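U., I forgot to send this yesterday:
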Amino acid sequence: MIATDIDWTIRDPDNPRYDFSAIADICCQIKKKGIEFLLLTGRDASFRRDIVPLLQKYLKQNSVTSPMYAGCANGGSLYKITSRAIHTVYRYGLSVNEIDECNALISRSIVKLDLTHADFQSQGLNVFAGFLSLSWDEVIPDWILFRAKKYQGLLFCEATKVSFVLPKLSITKKRLIEMIRKQLPNRFSLKTDQEYGHITLKQTDDKFIDKILALEFVRKQKRINKEHVVVFGGGLDEIDKQMLTKYPYSFTNQQKFKEKNVTKPPYKLIGKSSPVALVYEAILYLIA
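Result:
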C-alpha cells in the first residue's frame, strides 16, 4: 500500500504540473498495478468538492474498478471512493453545540490577546474568505457555513473540524495555541501546521484522532503488514509526525528536515527536482 499526504507532498499550489489532475492520474497508475492507495489529508469538505469528482473521472476513464481510500480531516473521517460513488467508512462529526463551543473559544482567545486581522497570516485569511464565498451545495450544510461567516475568514467550520488561521509572529502563534489548548475541553483535540490550527474530536478521552487512525484502519482491513506500506509526507509537525515515524518505510520531501538518526524513518527524499516532484519520482520508481 502507498499512503501519502496531499498538499505540498503530491500537490504543489505553485506548479500547475502537480495539480489535482496529477493526483488523480498517479492514483490510477498505482491502482492499475494492483496496489492499495490511501490519501491522507487535513482536507475534508474541500477534498470531497474539489478532488473526488476528478478522481472518479480518472478511475472511470482508466477502467479502475477497485476502490481507493481517503483519510480526511487528519484522520477524522475515512472515505472509500470508486468511479461511481463515495462511501463514508467512518466519521467523527461535530454537533451544532460543539461547533459553537469551538468558535466561541477561538474568538475569546483572539480578543484576550487583543489580536486583529492584521496579525494573522494573509494567505490563510484569503483561503478561508474564498471558501466562504463559494457554493458548497450539500458538502457543508448552510447551518455550518453560517456559523463561520461572522468571523470574516479567521476560521472555517465543517462537519468534522473547526479550523482557524494562525498569527504571523511565532511568539503570538505560540501564545494563541497555548491559550486555546488550556481552555479546550478534554473531548477535543487541537493540532497545528504552519498556517492553521484544527480542532477535532478525540477518538476517546485519551486517544487522539490522527492520520495514523485512517492508515491503520485500511491497513488492518486489507491485512497488509507494516513492512508493505510506504508513506509519504511533509514535515514532522503535529499532524504528520505519527504516520512518518511509525512505519519502517516512511519518507519526507521537506528539504529542511535534518535526520537525527539515518537508520530510522522518516527518510529524506533527495534529488535535483522540486520536493513534490521527488515524491512522484519515488512513487513511479516503486510501481515500475
